[in-house]
Amino acid sequence: MTDKAVVVTRDGGRVTLGLNRPSRRNALNAESWSSILDELRRAEADTNSRVVVIRSDGPVFCAGNDIKEAEVFPTPSDAKRYFQDTTVPTLEAMARSPLPIIAEVHGAALGSGVELLQFCDIVIAVDSATFQLPEARLGLWATVFVGSTQSLGVRRAALELSLTTEPYTAQRAFQSGLNTRVVPDHGLRQEVGLVVAGLMTKGRDAVAKSKRYANRSLIREGLVAVRDALEEHCEVSIFSADGIEGVSAFIEKRAPVFS
Question: Which segments of the protein form a coiled coil according to its record (predicted)?
């Protein structure tokens, strides 16, 4: 078993990026974000690459950002530098990539794990998967997800998820437009394989143009909103009394006491 945060496998035109921090519930750290970005660029430069699949090992798809790394900063400048160097360029590259990106989701997707899915093009989840934005329990808020939602239905789902912090089932997420397919637990790999095989038969340029025009509002407006939200998150939320208390309580494994 490799100790890399993201394991890459290539099979014909398929490039699979596997989140590989099961002991941390596949929480995203700086290496995770930079690896996704680097491998996406590498795939785009290879004319044989046609599809990117993001999946994970272990019982949890992704527990969000690694809070011990991504929410504890000496100054707002350090916080902004972290997200500007990791999260923002990776999500922008996903939105702009000419390659279709498929998410293969099992178990729980939380926080930034849900936000990562927001920038995938096709999200296939097992029936037992759950989607949750628990940030408000830490005195924080789901900056990327709330900032990047475009349609009315997804906007309302984003608000409900972020305000209540309660999880959505895969079926509820499908009804809200957060994922595109729900399959039985035993059928995930097969369904992803079928979608990949179908995409392999499509014209590369046609796929790229379809994605580019479909993502125009996300690129022109959504990413701007994400940057604005992250800037406020870094300058205010992380260093607010509630933000400090929430993160401290999480690390100390106790209930927070908010002001």
Answer: none
Q: What are the structural domain ranges in the chain?
A: 1-185+205-259
pLDDT tens digit sequence for 199-258:
999 999 999 999 999 999 888 888 898 999 999 999 999 999 999 999 899 889 999 999
Residue 8, both tokens: 């890459």
What amino acid positions are annotated as catalytic residues?
A: 115, 135
pLDDT of residue 145: 81
Which residues, in sequence order, are bridge partners of residue 68?
none
The string over 60-82, giving b where at least 16 C-beta atoms fall within 10 Å of a residue's C-beta and e elsewhere, is bbbbbbbbebbbebeeeeebbeb
